[in-house]
Amino acid sequence: MFDIGFFELLLIGVVGLLVLGPERLPGTIRTIALWIGRLRRSFNNIKMDIEKEIGADEIRRQLRNEDIMEKFKHTRSQFTEMTDSVKKDLDLKQELAGLADGAANKAVGGTDDTADGSAQSELPFASPDPGTGSSTPASISSVTAPAGEPEPRPESMPSPAVQPSATEKK
Fold this sequence. Notes:
Blueprint: H1 6-20, H2 25-54, H3 56-108, H4 138-143, H5 166-169
């Protein structure tokens, strides 16, 4: 604050020793130190009173809270962006799955009536098989071939003998 170095302190000590003498110098230094301590305490008390009246602590807390709220808003926006992205991805996956199911229904020979909502979602069940006691869908029980015979292929899919192999195309 006053920027007093060692040389200045030494000079003040020598002048004090010459002016006051060796008997009164220690008492004078002690008294000056007490006054300096009192001044520091009074300045600190005045500083604390001013800070209380101004509300510096409240301002610091408010600034800190604003900083925290800003970080919270930033984190919230990042979270919202991520959830929106995940929702978009999920919607796309569900749409692709629906398209794949529709394409599979068309390839098997079924119709894709999901667009107008007239498709039947349940398959009719056949009566329980007297041999096994289980009930299977009628369409599945009529398609399964006896053991040893190849399964019948739907009309929309050509037989493997008709399709040229990869080596024949070259």
